[in-house]
Specification:
6 helices; six-stranded mixed β-sheet; 31% strand; Rossmann fold
């Protein structure tokens, strides 16, 4: 089993680096390939079972887009072939058509038909989140400077608490074949052992996740609290 971690030096904000650590703790026999910004991604000419990329600063998004642009055709091929992708936080924005901020527009990778609207000066959204993916409830939190406006008909989750891709959307993220992208961070994988087992099974892993009993106890407690108290906004101002 090969898992490629894209740009670990960039994917360091909002605790998303914890997703990579959790993967390493869980998949102890897997080969992990860390692709840094100046490296040619392993997936270009080699086979991988899973690719992970996490949240980064807005400036780092530009570096990541430029690094991946030469390989868009290969990324699309891997997605169609069922390779597992997990993109958390604002790394989801890289795979849309563009990122707009005020009067500027940055061309993104164009893998999926959505765009992102951002304003770091006037807007920030922080909230807890509860959603449904198939028969799995997903918990977490969100912290972002952008919303996405999607023409995709393959969302990741139905919103049960919090907001969707934007305040008017009842669905969150993108899910196509084995490609998963979501604004939920926290980090996502340690908080959601059921989902972690599901996504890793798609990549060929069949064991227990790291600290499974403790992770399930924490997940059930968090889920219970969210349902009892509701998903409250910590801070949310909208355009």
């Amino acid at each position: 089993m090969k898992i490629e971690l894209l740009f670990p030096e960039l994917s360091t904000v909002y605790g998303d680096a914890g997703n990579a650590l959790y993967l390493k703790k869980t998949c102890k026999d897997a080969q992990f390939i860390e692709t840094h910004l100046q490296d040619k991604p392993h997936f270009v000419s080699g086979n991988v079972d899973m690719i992970y990329i996490g949240s980064m600063t807005e400036k780092s998004q530009i570096f990541a887009i430029n690094a991946l642009k030469p390989y868009v055709s290969r990324i699309k091929e891997l997605i169609e072939n069922g390779v597992v992708f997990l993109c958390t936080g604002n790394s989801m924005e890289l795979f849309g058509e563009y990122i707009a901020e005020d009067d500027k527009k940055v061309e993104a990778l164009g893998v999926f038909p959505f765009n992102s609207k951002r304003s770091s000066e006037y807007f920030r959204h922080n909230s807890m989140f509860l959603g449904d993916f198939e028969d799995i409830e997903v918990v977490g939190c969100r912290s972002q400077f952008a919303y996405i406006y999607s023409k995709c008909d393959t969302p990741f989750m139905k919103v049960k608490g919090g907001i969707g891709n934007n305040p008017d959307d009842k669905f969150e993220g993108i899910h196509y074949k084995n490609f998963f992208a979501t604004y939920v961070l926290g980090p996502l994988l340690p908080l959601n052992p059921k989902f972690t087992k599901h996504i890793l099974s798609l990549a060929g892993f069949s064991g227990e996740v790291a600290f499974e009993k403790e992770a399930m106890d924490a997940y059930n407690l968090r889920l219970e609290k969210l349902k009892e108290e509701g998903v409250n906004f910590i801070l949310g101002e909208h355009w």
